[in-house]
Specification:
It is a single chain. The protein has one helix and eight strands. It is mostly beta strands. The chain has a single domain, classed as Elongation Factor Tu (Ef-tu), domain 3, CATH 2.40.30. Strands 1, 2, 3, 4, 5, 6, 7 and 8 form an eight-stranded antiparallel sheet that branches. The N and C termini lie close together (about 10 Å).
Length: about 140
Amino acid sequence: MTMTAGIINGTDLLIYIGGTKIYHSTNHSLNLGMSPRDATTKDSAAWRALLGGLRNWSISGDALMAMDAAYGYSELQAVLIARTAVTVKFSSEVAGDYYWSGSALLTVLDLEAGTEDNASMSYTLEGTGALTQYTGT
């Protein structure tokens, strides 16, 4: 495969932890942020002044619950309990497309099971250190 032309289909973007995709994903997002530093002084004419501060990133997602998933709830639960950073990648796995990767801690893992509904899980991984953009090969 070569680089995706035009608008990317969201179905093609997946989350990988340690090189293995999270199975039965239904939705995920990559969030980038920056916490500005207040630089307001008496010379700011009563307007707030800001300077760049700490940057942050996180990845969150949802997936259907399947007991036999190759990488699902029980594997994510083990990551959360271990409290160790994992390598996470947000990628289409198409050569030439961008992907994003970094080290993150799993901070939230929820399991939902509504009456006569699909059981599902949601998770949040918070970046520790830089998120790097690459081009897939």
